[in-house]
Design a protein that fits this description.
Blueprint: E1 11-14, E2 32-35, H1 41-51, E3 57-64, H2 66-72, E4 75-79, H3 84-95, E5 98-99, E6 102-103, H4 113-141, H5 147-157, H6 165-175, H7 186-189, H8 199-209, H9 215-228, H10 230-237, H11 251-284, H12 290-296, H13 308-317, H14 328-350, H15 356-368, H16 375-386, H17 413-416
Helix pairs in contact: 4-8, 4-9, 4-11, 5-6, 9-15, 11-14, 11-15, 12-13
């Protein structure tokens, strides 16, 4: 129920249905309305604007935690106008999950920033889940691991650098016997179609808007789309061919290689997510502390993981860090794992097993570490067919080439670049 009037303490925390009209809620100047419904951030910006004439503050707060978070405290990501966090702080610091360095919440930034950080959190979650699914696929079909062996493997992994909520529950999933037919395991009875609520799609849309690479999360989203085309895949299986034999591998070596590849790919996914938060923060005027984002994801939320301490430490060492991959400690981790990562991706491809997120993470790593990419050819093509001009490596300025006798002088090359992103 919604109160007809706010008196005394000003914050009103509600889950706002999509159909609600904020103007019908009786609020007074100075009151604070908090939406904890994981809303699309432009809607939060719009609602805050609608309430401004009445001097009512509006805060959007992302919440992650699922059923366990509801019982033991979630990760709370609030973003609102100046003064709004101070009103909510006594409440949410007690509601939030508690970890060794404090409650899993902090003042993310301005209106919309909390929803944005939660959106990217969910995009990272998509990437994490897809990478784990690919590791499972490789171990099951190339390594021939049984469900019990898979459970034991993930249980062991959860005691090392991969320690996380998702790795923990995955080990439990593999051990769960089917309680309906009492034959086999639940995981083998589940239809291979993954559902979604839309936050992953929002993340990829936003990454495109910000010109920010998000290849791991995008691969995870694409795979969910493909999984939904079950009937098409069943039909294609009898038409399209793949390798006729699985490669022979040493099971122990495969498990170790997949562990290293999974961790390296996971680092890339988080690096891309953090870059998106940072870029949006700069463009939208939010001063977001990335180290604190990592800290509040340590408890309550779905992507909670031990290595978030390492991410926090990286941004404490260098708050202006351009990319997690070039942090000295993370760079060591990547460099020591990159050959195993390549072997696992190559092995999967040679076996005809798709690993789009793991492949995308490796491609991003290789592109990011190269000082020169073949983008020079792409820009040459753009200039050839559209007169889009180019820059040179040997002198400053913008140039256009008359590639053939059919090409004419395009005039002021600066004008040609109007509208470039």
């Amino acid at each position: 129920a919604y109160p007809n009037r706010v008196g005394g303490d000003p914050p009103v925390w509600v889950q706002i249905p999509k159909h609600i009209t904020l103007h019908v809620i009786c609020l007074e100047a100075g009151d604070l309305l908090v939406d904890g419904g994981n809303e699309w951030f432009p809607n939060t910006l719009r609602r805050a604007k609608e309430l401004e004439p009445r001097s009512v503050m509006f805060m959007g707060m992302g919440i992650s935690g699922g059923e366990e978070g509801a019982r033991h405290g979630p990760s709370l990501m609030p973003g609102g106008p100046p003064g709004s966090y101070e009103l909510m702080e006594p409440i949410i610091t007690k509601c939030a999950a508690q970890v060794d360095d404090g409650p899993c919440t902090f003042n993310i930034g301005g209106v919309g920033s909390g929803n944005y950080v939660k959106m990217v959190h969910n995009g990272i979650e998509y990437g994490d889940m897809q990478l784990i699914a690919e590791a499972y696929d490789i171990l099951k079909h190339i390594g021939k691991l049984s469900n019990e062996e898979l459970a034991g493997t993930f249980e062991t992994w959860n005691k090392g650098e991969l320690e996380s909520f998702l790795i923990e529950i995955t080990s439990k999933i593999f051990r769960k016997k089917d309680d309906i037919t009492e034959d086999g395991y639940v995981v083998d009875k589940i239809l291979d179609k993954t559902g979604m609520k839309g936050t992953g799609r929002w993340t990829i849309q936003e990454a495109a808007e910000r010109n920010c690479p998000a290849s791991v999360m995008s691969a995870a989203l694409d795979t969910r789309y493909i999984s939904g085309r079950k009937d098409e895949r069943v039909a294609a299986e009898s038409i399209l061919e793949g390798p006729s034999e699985m490669p022979v591998v040493d099971k122990k070596e495969l498990i170790d290689g997949v562990r290293k590849a999974l961790y390296a790919a996971k680092i890339v996914s988080y690096a891309q997510g953090m870059n998106l938060i940072r870029d949006a923060g700069v463009q939208l005027g939010w001063d977001i502390n990335l180290g604190e984002c990592a800290r509040i994801w340590k408890g309550g939320c779905i992507i909670r993981a031990a290595f978030l301490d390492n991410i926090k430490a990286a941004f404490v060492r260098n708050p202006s860090l351009k990319n997690l991959l070039v942090d000295p400690e993370f760079a060591k981790e990547m460099n020591s794992r990159q050959m195993d990562w390549r072997k696992v991706v190559s092995l999967a491809q040679s076996a005809g097993i798709s690993c789009p997120a793991m492949s995308a993470s490796l491609s991003y790593y290789d592109a990011y570490r190269r000082a020169r990419l073949p983008a020079n050819l792409t820009q040459a093509q753009r200039d050839f067919f559209g007169g889009h001009t180019y820059e040179r490596v040997d002198k400053p300025g913008t140039f256009h080439c008359r590639w053939s006798d059919a090409h004419k002088d395009i005039g002021n090359v600066q004008e040609r670049n109007r509208g470039n992103l």
